[in-house]
Amino acid sequence: MKKENNKQVVIDFFEKFSAADAEAALSFLHDDVQWRAMGLKGELPISGTMDKDGIAELIVMVKSAIPKGLHLKPIAWTAEGNRVAAEYESYGVLNNGRVYNNPYHFLFEFTNGKISVIKEYMDTLHVKETFID
Q: Domain containing 54 — which CATH number?
């Protein structure tokens, strides 16, 4: 049952993240959470590791760039022990009319029922082309 609980925590976290409800989203995270977006450090502003404060800033930034919200759709799951692997797809329209539609793979690790590690794999070229270029 713990695996199902962990999956539900991920679903609830992304529901609140998508709604730009930072306070509620952060409630699913361990105080020492680390979110690592894969990519060469320095190549993109999103690459590297964020702590809980950084995640709160990310939620605000996403809401600012995508005012109607970033929809995150779960595609597939694998859960084992304190880890959940999840495939997601995002969709959102930026202020400038560009469409952000990115596939992701996330690996979540849990400590005491809260997300303590997030590893994010995504199409970093799409991030660059949509948000930077």
A: 3.10.450.50
